[in-house]
Every structure is written in structure tokens, then in C-alpha cells.
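Researcher: Sequence of Retrovirus-related Pol polyprotein from type-1 retrotransposable element R1 4 follows. Predict its structure.
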Amino acid sequence: MRVAGEKTQALVLSQWARDASRLSIRVAGAEVTGGTTLRLLGVSFDRLLHFGAHCNELRKKVRPRTAHLRRMTGRSWGLTERQLRTVANGYVRGALEYAAGAWLPAASESHLTLIDRELRAAARVVTGCLASTPSHALMAEAGLPTAHMCRDIRAARQLALAASLPAGDPLRTLADSSPPRRLAATLGWRDRGREMFARLSPGGEPLIIEERLHVSAPPWQDGGEVSFHLDVGPDGSRDRPPELRRRAAEERLESFPADATWIWSDGSAEEGVHRGGGGALIVTHDGATREVRVAAGRLCSSTRAELFALRAALEDLTSTPDRDTARPIIICLDSKAALALLKNGPAAQRTPVAADIWKALQGISATGQPIQLQWVPAHCGLPLNERADGLAKEASALPQEDTPIDVTTVTRAAARSASARWREAWPDGWHKEIWGSRLPGPVEGEDRCSAIDVHQLRAGHWSCSEQYLHRIGRRPSPECEQCDSVRCPAALCRVCREEADTPRHVLLRCPALAGRRLARVGTIHPTVTELQDDGVVAALAAGFRAQLSRLATPP
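Model: Prediction complete. C-alpha cells:
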């Protein structure tokens, strides 16, 4: 291998600037001097590993993208908010988080602030909120995470990825080691990841990470005689009454051979994320039944619990001595997500549990047994499905400590934990009164102008408010040029002249909007939480603007 000296970079990792200035080496006949940064695969490393230079480069890279996002919308036109959120997350935030697992956990607080500034700029474009909007309300209304949240999530994911490697892998060895810190105030992905793991396991038990699937099935491998059915007809949709859904499922199941071996499996997880359990009921052609219960992990999604249940049922079936291989197998479960994942075929599986299911299906199919996997609607009165659901709930109470957790589940749990900690830290105020610890979704069903009013009113800074405009010096009066007092005469509501036209006054107390409140929520004194309804806030904002328009129209 020949080394190109003219392309070689050198960097001294030191707290002393003079160390870097004294470095000079010769590589392949070319003199290489130590620089202030070293760029590797798009990431700039500095001598202190604070990544300040990299953050500054990211800001220069992202600002044109934010400008592009701004050109996609205006005050009364543009993309829908859901589309704006998608573009902001993929085009702007995606650039900021490039290779973030390598540098973001180690970035200093001051440099994280630089990243947060660019995220807030994108959030203002998405929501139309003003520059003075409190950052927590702005980011919540835009549906964007903060840099600190991204840092913790990336660190947890990086540590989980390293722990999922086989023993002896260099990265796994690095993750398991505990060398002394270079700087007491600087944490890397390993230390921050361990902090996140500790939050995800309040009892102190270590998280056991599932070893990743290193070799997947080749794409040309045949799945065998395995069929998937993800519906039972139009009457099986969730919006239909339970009786219709049950009848549709029963009609579909009657089309299968009655003398088949039936497997009814189900998964359960507390709140959809904790203490997973899988349960299955195996019914043979002669009416004999066997029950299967399996723990799915302390951190577990409902879909993963379903997969655990199905794998355990197939393992129980294939391990039965002298089992009947002449009859077809019908598998019924109520998770479309699990079925859709498996339907992609053995080569598309990326987790050991899904790969194990396909191995079992192929092994059974190799004996000549056809296999049908059928989705059935949940909680509609199918007796065997209800029994499987009961078994899954029983299984969630089994010991979970030894059940491994996959990287995706850990990453999602870390995201929920980081979001919850951020919401708990919200300061008391108007926005927290409305939402509590919830996050708002995108404003839908309203035009762009109304959506901006909704965001601004709920965030507490509204551009149509006299009190706000006077506070920032845009509505001076002869008596007072600028102040933040809500009792100042210049801040009075132009419609009722009773008090300052703060968002609380406009949405809850202005007498001129009593009729609108009565029409929308059935009372002239709505509660603060009723302002979570986008339509209510938009209607009141439109009513207030209409009142102002009448005042501005000469008689």
C-alpha cells in the first residue's frame, strides 16, 4: 500500500496549543504539519475533542437548508405542516446529526447550544412562531427534539450497537472497558450511554442486549409453502362494530381445513413498551390443546412480544415427538405489523427472533406441510384469540431479567426517556398549562395562516397581540413607549378594552368571543386543556381577527 503524503493530515490531541504547532512529520516524501483540526469521513476533530469546529461547519451547511425550507412555506401558503415536519427532520436535522454517534455525545454544552440554534430556526419555519417564543414551547409545537435529547439517544444507541456485537469484537471490548476520563467534564458515548441504560433500568439490573443478526438469509432463498393473509374483508376494519368484525373473521377462518393444526398467538406489553409477554394456544386436529407462555423482556414493544409468542409456539410444535406432519398449519394472530414484517420474506429479516421464526416455518414447510398465517381482528369476541391474549398477559408477569433486548427497542426506550425528562423540565407557564406533559401533534385541517395562529397562541407569543407588540417596542404610545406590564393602557385588548390581550385573555376571557366559545366547546368558560383542540384555537383566533377587522373598517 502506498501512502499519499499530500493527502495526509496530522492532529495532536492535547490541551496545550503549542503541542500542535510543533508537530512536523514527513510522509512519503511530503512534509505534514500538525493542524488545528483533522477531517475524517465528514467529521472535523479538534485537539480537545470538543467538536466546536465541526459544529460551526454544520451551522454553515444547514443554514442554506433552512432557507430552502423557508421557501416552501409562507404566512398563508405552502406545504402542510406534516410535510414541513418531514422535511425539517430529514433535510435539516438529518444533516445536523450526520455521524452523530461519533461526536455528539462528547460535544460540550456550548457547542450543543450551536446545534440547538439551528434546530430552533427550523422549528420557527415549521410553526411560524416568533423569534422570542420560549424554546421549550417552540420545539414542542414543531415536534423537533433538542440537541441534548439527540445526544442521549445517540449515546444509548451506540452503546447498544456495541453490546450487540459478539464477544471479542474490538468495539464490544471498547464498550465494556472503563478507562480513565481524559477530561472530568467531558463524557463520551460510552459514559452517556451507561447513564441512559441506568435510567432505563431503575432497579439497577443490567440490560442484556440481544446479539444482532450477523448473517441473514440469501435473497434467492425460497420461503417455502408459506402464505400470509393480512385482512378478513372490509368488515374487519377497526371502525366496524365488534360483532361485524368477529363475523368477518369467522367466515374467513371457515375457509381453512377444520382438521388442521391451529396456533393462536398474541403478545402483550404494559403501555405497549414495558414487561412484554407472549402467549400461544396450540390446538391439534383431535381437539387437544397446549399453552405456551414466554417472557419478552423488560423493554418490549407489542409487535416484538407477538414475535416472541409465535417463535415459542413454533419451537413447541416442532419439538413435539411424533407430531402430525400430514395436516396443514393455520397460524392466527392479531398483529398486522408482525405479519407484515414476516411477509417480507426470510432475507428481509433483521432481528434474530424474526429470523428464527422463518427458520421454523421453512423447516415445517420442508416436510410438505402448507402453512397459512392469518390476521384476525383483536378484542372482537373470538374465543381462542381471547385465550391467547390472556396467556400473553400472564406471560408478562414472568421474570424478565434474562430476556435480551434488541437495539431498536433500547433506542426507542431511550427516546421516550429523553423526551420525558425534557418535558418534566418545562418551566411553569401558559404552554405547560395547556399541554401538561403531553406533546402537541401537527395542526391539521386548517390553512397555513390559521395553523400559525394556533402555534403562536399556544406558545404564548402572538403577533396579533397589542400587549406583545407593545412589549417588544412595536406599539409605542404617547404615555409609554415600551414595557412588559399587562396593566399598561397601551396593552389593552382593542376589542373589549377590559384587560391586556394576552393569549389567555383572547382564548378564555374576552367577552367578544363568548359566542364562539359557546358554539365550539359548549360553554363560555372553557378549560385550559380544551385548547389542545386545534379547531377551537383556530376558531377563536379567526373570531378575534374578525372583530379587529370590524374596528378597522370605517363606518
